[in-house]
Amino acid sequence: MRVFSEELMSRAAAACNIKDFRAASIMETSQASSWLEKETGIPFIHLELGSPGFSPNPWGVAAEKEALDLGYGAQYPPLGGLPKARQAVSRFLKSFLDIELPADCCMITSGSMQGSLVSFISLTQRVPGKDKILFLNPCFSSQRNQLSMLGVGYRAVEEYGCRGEALVARIGEELSRGDIAALIYSNPSNPAWTCLEESELKGIAAQCERYDTIPIEDLAYFGMDFRHEGYGTPGKAPYPPTIARYTSRFVLLLSSSKIFSFAGQRAAAMCIGEPLAREHSPALAQRYHGIGEFAHTVEADLIDLMSCGTAMTVQYAFARMLELSCEGVIDFVGDTAEYGRRAARMKEIFLRHGFSVVYDRDLSAPTGDGFFFTLGYPGMSGAELASELVAYGVAVVNLKASGSVREGVRICSSRISGSQFDVLKSRMSDFAEDHPSAR
Amino acid sequence: MRVFSEELMSRAAAACNIKDFRAASIMETSQASSWLEKETGIPFIHLELGSPGFSPNPWGVAAEKEALDLGYGAQYPPLGGLPKARQAVSRFLKSFLDIELPADCCMITSGSMQGSLVSFISLTQRVPGKDKILFLNPCFSSQRNQLSMLGVGYRAVEEYGCRGEALVARIGEELSRGDIAALIYSNPSNPAWTCLEESELKGIAAQCERYDTIPIEDLAYFGMDFRHEGYGTPGKAPYPPTIARYTSRFVLLLSSSKIFSFAGQRAAAMCIGEPLAREHSPALAQRYHGIGEFAHTVEADLIDLMSCGTAMTVQYAFARMLELSCEGVIDFVGDTAEYGRRAARMKEIFLRHGFSVVYDRDLSAPTGDGFFFTLGYPGMSGAELASELVAYGVAVVNLKASGSVREGVRICSSRISGSQFDVLKSRMSDFAEDHPSAR
User: Fold this and answer.
1) Contacts of B310 in chain A (CB under 8 A)
2) ipTM of the predicted structure?
3) Do A55 and B71 touch (CB under 8 A)?
4) Does B20 touch chain A (CB under 8 A)?
């Protein structure tokens, strides 16, 4: 039996300004499920929002209080960020990716949401005619929405059934049209949790270099491919795969939100490969009345025009957490490994009740258990499934929002815990009973 | 005698990626003057950056530490901001402007820089064909640069020699062309420190209503027109002039940066008049695939796509400072009155050495002493004066950056204190001696 009636669902949609549950965004679904919880007193199982499931990193909290005591907070943040934070990002890249990048190529942004927005603007304005973005689908829908906001064009390549050399060739085909300024993907992928492998990254890097396209690698879930042991040990292999190993003309987005459970504080870094950072663009020079150096435009024009940078005390905390990670005091991989265990337990429950994992294969292995996974149900579209699961008190997101060609939903493993697994079991048992098409 | 040689100035420009000192932006001038200080050990008198001259508000600092202790910081900020902060903004508007606005029409933004950016995007996308911004010049140059970044068109009306009915008529003329989505001005004005008076605001509001143009009133320096006694007493007249008294279709930008010396933390509010907030725009519905309600688009799409909102602990602190102001515990007008005293002392020094105030008159009185004032020097363009003053160890900003038709520079009174007044005297005495054209 459903937990919430049609009538309640309609009222929730109206109260939250949602046109149609089947097309609701992540934040809208989150808002509506909170509304239903308040209205009925029945708790939801929140699998929609990719919000951390833990308390904010205590070292970060302590550092931020220290910064407050030191009187940070009155003066505008320096262009590009607090030098301490930029240096810490540089050191972190060396320690955990074995990539050398000077601190002045690392910019602090108000979350990677700002990082991707600044990347999109700067890269599509860099070379006249190169003004579109290529997504690897399924993608992080907010990044696509950023382009709708800006009025910037985009295309996409779907990864399902197209990995390895086929994927590289498909990307090359799109880049060869000459209008793609940048390619963006997250690795591990939000929402598919697939991971591009070294051979793929190497091939993609070559295609990018060939056509002067900049890859934007979103490392929001850095180190969380838990299939590989040993990530996250400072200065020691193995290192997670990164395109920065195959081209120096890249943008990496590194976020504190998941690895340090600092999503509420909005601190991230936009790391620009040095040759790209130092490049002079006549188009940028003209538009911003400066000398058009790429990194300078990003810090002095774009980030400054977005929000004058990132809260000073948060930058201070970000710096401390990065530093302590490099010193082996913070174990951000160990700290987030619980997400993998939660994903495994949930997958077991869902699969037992007729669901299947949509993006189930990587190039050379099954998809791992981590922060996200994808689910389908026989005979149901992703929109129907997402809307129907809300009625059973389980908030999820339709994969269509990610531009996926597959029908299904995204599940985030971060916020379920304790007795909620039993509630999930019972609700999915009801769901399966009411939807026997699976049998 | 100059403090810094031509050669040093050139090296500073090169080190800071500045093409020409005479066209340098505020942040570039700031960067270059810091470079010169480091290189030579000679301190600058920093009159360029509009950064607070005091420590961050201690109540805000204490509240932020409290929020950290309470474990804020892990979860993404709610759409539109922390309810507590939105309610506090609503209460603040009632207490200090005598304006009633529901909390859900008040959005928390990462500083008013984000507030103006979100305003520009939402308002120019609201009605097809209404896609340009009208500035009241001289304007805050960063806001104009935001439009260059977005590729949005703008025009401007200069206020010099055109106040009162003439100004209202001039604005009406521009609005009558039908393509102006919004009019933006700051009151008091950055950089001129002029203040639009009630009669002007009333006339402008009528023109805006007539042509469906939304006024964006930037209240960055709220309550700092120190010519008027009694501002800042909660619930008691007199209240500063505001366009919100003459139209309900407005956007007000309220910032914590100056009134609470919280510029480093990036907290502000975008307050949307209720009829505008509730309006449905087919164009916004189509672009963002929602129902197109203006306020919902702003919070669920634009602010979320900018940075996923504002740091949670900072929002908590912002809420506390607004509440304590309403309770009469924080006296933000008294706290900032020192800026007026510093401006008066500086003006006296400059005027004695041959300078004059460029924007010296308001509609019905001389310009007051506050956070900014403007200066000219006989026979020198604003660019020459700005560049030359840097050579004398005084960092200022060319008024041309603000689109002013007048030659001169902007002076910020916030950061000069103590013995720096004597240093200023001596440097300006040298300046006057070396530039006898003034005599």
Assistant:
1) 266
2) 0.95
3) yes
4) no
